[in-house]
Structure formats: C-alpha cells, structure tokens
Predict the structure.
Amino acid sequence: MHDLFSDFRPKVEEIYPETFVLPHFTDSKVLKPLVNTIVRSAPFRHMMTPMGYYTNVALTNCGSWGWHSDITGYRYVKQDPQTQRNWPAIPPKFMQLAKNAAQTVGFANFEPDACLINCYQIGSQLGSHQDKNEQDFKWPIVSVSIGLPATFQIFGKIRSGSPINYQLLDGDVMVWGGKSRLIYHGVKKLQADKLNPKTQQRINITFRKAR
Ligand code: MD3
Ligand code: FE
C-alpha cells in the first residue's frame, strides 16, 4: 500500500448506479493525526437542527465552507460560529485523496471546498436524508470511513422504504455522483466491534464542492 492510497489499479465496486466503493483505498493511520489536528482548532460539536433537536453525530469541518445547522436552518458558512474564525484549511493529503478517488471513478477536476467530518459513537445513527445544499450537483461527493464498521443505507429516490445495506470499513472510500448524487441515504445505529474492543468510534469525512 502507498502512503495514502493504493494507486495501482484499485478495486472499484459500483453498488448502485454511479455510487462507487473503493474498498481499503486509503490508510486511516495516515489520516487520523490530520483529523486530530483539525479537531484541536475546530472541536467536534452536536448541532441543533431546525426541528429543535441536537444531532447525535458530532461534526466539524475544514475547508473554505463548513456545514452548519441551527434552529434557523441548514447552510454552509465561511466561519465557525463557535469561534468566529475561518475553518481550518483542508490538509494537502486530504485534497490529494479526494481528487484521486474521484478521478479513479471518472470524475475529473474535482476541487472540493468543503470537508465535513462526522464523529459517531456507539449508538449514533444518521437518518435518511439527501445532500442538496451544494450549488452544482454535477460534482460528486467523496466519503472516507475511519474506525468502526458501519452499515450505510441507500434508500434511493424516496426517503423511506427498504434500503440497500452496505458495510463500510476502515479505509474504505465511497464516491457518489451523476444519477446517485441526490439519493436518500443514512447510517444505521453504530455497533461495537467485539473483535476490536479498543475501537470505540467511527469518523467519516465527506468532501464536497459547496460553491
Ligand atoms: C450519497 N454521511 O455527512 S457518507 C453526510 O457515513 C453523510 O457519515 C454519511 O451522509 C456518513 O451527509 C455517509 C457517504 C455519502 C455522502 C453524501 C452523499 C453518501 C451520499 C450524497 C448523496 C448520496
Ligand atoms: Fe449525507
């Protein structure tokens, strides 16, 4: 394996039209210290949703734009509302990974300007939703999984129904674009891994082009 990603004919699985999984594409041991550095200047927080609930998944951001929600709605913001400072820059290795993963499945020239970092504890889940606050849906979203395995769910064009379930493991990278860009998706309640009792959380990084 390369320092950051396996760049020699990586395995690619298309699990849904234009939804690609690159199993074990990256090395979480390289990424984790970079996440920790970001979290020191922009700590994980539980945001308030417009519905008035706190999310059980904690979140922070790096990049020119950061995802934020409060009682007034969801939006991308240039400054961290908790510190009034710009979000930390996207580390060069993150950019290299996102661009390389997108390129590998056919999305050339992807230049993400927003990088959301989700932190799941055991018991955390993410309900079915679409990601539709970005300006141009021609750009894909690239997601990177670190830590505990999670069951990712694809509901498709409607919010509910019986999903396609897919297990995402540490180091897996997923790329979504084209006809899958606006599909409903979620993450099932995170479970402990009896075989790796020291791993107690999952971090998911998503790269987007917000503007
Ligand atoms: C499919 N995060 O942050 S990442 C999110 O594992 C989010 O934390 C999940 O959904 C997680 O919004 C899944 C994969 C992902 C991200 C964006 C998508 C899948 C997507 C947008 C459209 C379709
Ligand atoms: Fe999402």
Notes: The helical segments are 28-41, 92-104. Residues 116, 118, 126, 131, 141, 143, 152, 174, 176, 180-181, 183, 185, 187, 204, 206 surround MD3 (ligand 1) (CB under 6 Å).
